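Supplementary Methods S3. Complex input for the iron/sulfur cluster-bound model.
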Amino acid sequence: MTSHGVLVIGGGIAGVSAALALTERDVPVTLVERDAQLGGQASSVCCKAVAGRCQQCGGCLYAGQLQACADQTRIDIQLTTTVTSCNPSEGGFRYTLCTLDGSLEGTASAVILATGFDHVNARTKGAFGYGLLPAIISGDELERRLSEAGQAAFDTDEPRQVAFIQCVGSRDEQAGRGWCSQVCCRYGVRLARLLKARSPNTVVTVFRMDIQHCGRDSQAFDLAQKEDITFVTGLPAQIQRAGAHNEQVLLQYDDIHAGQYTSLLADLVVLSTGIQPRADAAATADLFGLERNAFGFMASAADDVRTAVPGIYLAGCCQAPRSIADSIAHARRAAAACLQDLQEQPA
Ligand SMILES: Cc1cc2nc3c(=O)[nH]c(=O)nc-3n(C[C@H](O)[C@H](O)[C@H](O)COP(=O)(O)OP(=O)(O)OC[C@H]3O[C@@H](n4cnc5c(N)ncnc54)[C@H](O)[C@@H]3O)c2cc1C
Ligand code: SF4
Ligand code: SF4
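Predicted complex, serialized as structure tokens:
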């Protein structure tokens, strides 16, 4: 039996940030991560600096947090571990962990759930041909390939047409996906700038409904427009194979502002996929007695970090789509709410 202050579930940037915020206030933490390492999805976000100039994409924010977490002796990190039960007990919770070595029981005063999200599967937008045509890749694939192979991975001196299609799998009420994923304008515009800067003979077109930009995202958007990146208002209805060996694709679209139906022959299409609830979100919600909202994310209650179950809090993208910086801020708010409630509990 282990007894630790707060149980944090999920070792992505949100869980790690919540754990660090708690230990800053001397509260011991057990941090449970199902994978063999900490970091979650933020670890595959690439650096989008253009010619050495930071684009403030937030991609490197997680490294410092991970190191601080690894150095923090008051965080008991349990990797390759999941929670198999968690029930209210004596003003707190009694839980069981499933580890590589067997099961482990413990108690906690409170629980912070930071179980994150799944990438939108671009195959769900069948008309875009993802998985069938080699010229079509998803946003998370582009992030991962640039992150693993370096910024030169897509360099070419040849003339080339690259198209980004925004909102793929998000803001689609008909498919029951009415939410905005928040991050795909951020990374899409910055990656468009990066590809254009590294290969000046590349012509870049971004198809969008609108662009979510405020604060530091506005600068990237303004610069993109000055750099001859074309923004078309309207999303292609269909993509067809083209070229002698299907190496290109033809995008057909209604250019709302230009007032005409037209087409573009592209060598590379990036589907700007976003964030959706994890496939096991329903099972996780059941385990902790939580509800989910209309979109399937964990439901918050009085504010965006507390839940309907006293003592259980939410951090990061398990509650709603967020950037890395916003996930860190949300996790710190979850930790602050947790500490406030613990202090207000009768002794
Ligand atoms: C294509 C794409 C590109 C992006 N690019 C950017 C960008 O450029 N800049 C930016 O700021 N943000 C970007 N983001 C957003 C960024 O990835 C998220 O903000 C961040 O990963 C959220 O962290 P999280 O901890 O909430 O979730 P996650 O990263 O999903 O972490 C959750 C963790 O919980 C673990 N877990 C899940 N369930 C359990 C369980 N039951 N038990 C134990 N562990 C569990 C998972 O293994 C994982 O490690 C991008 C997102 C996408 C989809
Ligand atoms: S914020 Fe983004 S662009 Fe800037 S250095 Fe970090 S990863 Fe690179
Ligand atoms: S962030 Fe941009 S691309 Fe992503 S769903 Fe929202 S509007 Fe669409």
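The two ends are 23 Å apart (CA to CA). The longest helix spans residues 324-344.
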